Structure formats: C-alpha cells, structure tokens
Write the structure tokens for this entry.
Amino acid sequence: MERKGFVEKKIASLLSEEPFFSQVFYYDILPSTNDFAKEMASSGASEGTIVLAGSQTAGKGRMGRSFFSPEGDGLYLSIILKPDTGFDPGLITACAAVAVRQAVEELMNLSVSIKWVNDLYIGNKKLCGILAEGHFSKDGLPDYIILGIGLNLKTPTGGYPEDLASIVTALSDVMPEEDIPDVSLLCVAIVKQFSRLYKKLPDVGFLETYRSASCVLGKRISYVLCGEKKVGTALLIDDSASLVVQNDNGETETLSTGEVSFVRPIM
Ligand code: BTN
C-alpha cells in the first residue's frame, strides 16, 4: 500500500476508540500542515481532524520564523480544534507541550524539559516546537484553533542549516535510529495525551507537570516587553500559563506570550 494509505489507515485504526479523533490526512509534501488544516477547518472540518506531512516546503514557526521540515526527518502534525468556550489559546499551547512530553516519555522513556512557552528541549537544544494559530469570530470566541507540532526525529543527512546546527537536536542524537517510533505511533500517542488534557480544560491541573518540567523557572532570562529588551529572573508560571518575571529593577512583570532566552552568568 502506498505510504499515504498506510499511515492514514494505521492512525485511524489506532485512534478508533478515541472520541476526540475525527479523521486523518497524510501527504508526502505540503507547504505547511497548519495552513492546510486552516483551510479544512474553515470549510467545515471537525475538531479532532489530523493533518500530517512527510515534509513541508514552507513550515511555519512562531514569531514569523520558518520551521525546517526536511523529508522523513520530523513529525509535522496539525490538529484542528473547535473549542466551544473561549479559554486562552496560551493554555492550549501549554497543554500540547505537556502532551508531547508525556508521549515522548511513554514511548521512549526520555525526559524532556519545557522551555516557556512552547518548546521542548533535550539538554540545551530544541527538540520540538509548537505553533497554535487561532481564527476568532467577532465575539472573541475561536472559530477554530490549529495546533501545529514539529518534532525532530533524525538529523538530516546533510546536517542542519548553519543557523540551526548549534541550537536544535533530534531523537536520533539520544537514541538509536531504529528504536525511534514511526510517525503514526508518535502521532497517536500525542493525540491521546493531548485529548486527555484538553477535554478537562479549563481545569489546568496539567500545569503542575508543565511547571515541574520547566527549564526556565528560577533562571536568569532576557525577554522583550512592549518593545523593550529586559533581563530578569523567571519566578513562576501562573494559572493561565503566563510567565511571571522579576526584572532587574525589582519589578514583577507578567509575560503572556513572546519568547525568552537564557542569560549566561558573567564569570
Ligand atoms: C516553533 O518552533 O516556533 C513552532 C514550530 C511549529 C512547527 C509545526 S510543524 C507542523 C505545523 N505546520 C507548520 O507550518 N508549523 C507547525
């Protein structure tokens, strides 16, 4: 059977008992699974629809960046969500980070940390990025949210591009390639873990795991707030998954979105 049919059939059969799951679409190549899922969602596809690609030609990351998506070297997954209440999309991202972490732990017994708000790390390198994109109606409620997950499975044969080489990692860096679960099994484990947490929202019990897996709490970080670059210490993650920071002037600031970088202590 060609790959498309094989992957779709395997995932649909493994998720047949999962009420959250709707349908699955696999393509060898897409510009971006998030963009494709967006089109499907706006044409009426239901919550729990899954889109996967073997590679992406225009994979998207947060803050307008691209997500390097070479063929066969990563899991490129988007899930359509149509929540009927208006909880913060930031919570969806945090929920997904915990779900991916638990799926990786369950399948491979690997421990990964979470870098606020949406990255999974092994050591000091990024393994996985999450991009949630919402489309909201005039009343502020989401028409749909596309949850995109990009997980590096193998280091590409020619290596990563120069700008990524020192900051990203793949499962193949920490385990034998032949032991890496296939894309279908990874997708199923992530969807199962995610739906378990998502259906409990707005219960944010999963944030306990998020906090304990955080590699940011207690660390010196730099961040941008209202266009100003600042340095401070990450104090806590509140119940809306915002990061509370004490800046170097002693003020407490709350970041609901954005990105932080670690600041190395001056020796
Ligand atoms: C980030 O690291 O900033 C987020 C990366 C998200 C990448 C995934 S891959 C599947 C989905 N489709 C996209 O175009 N982006 C997300």
Q: What stands out?
A: The first strand starts at residue 24 and ends at 30.
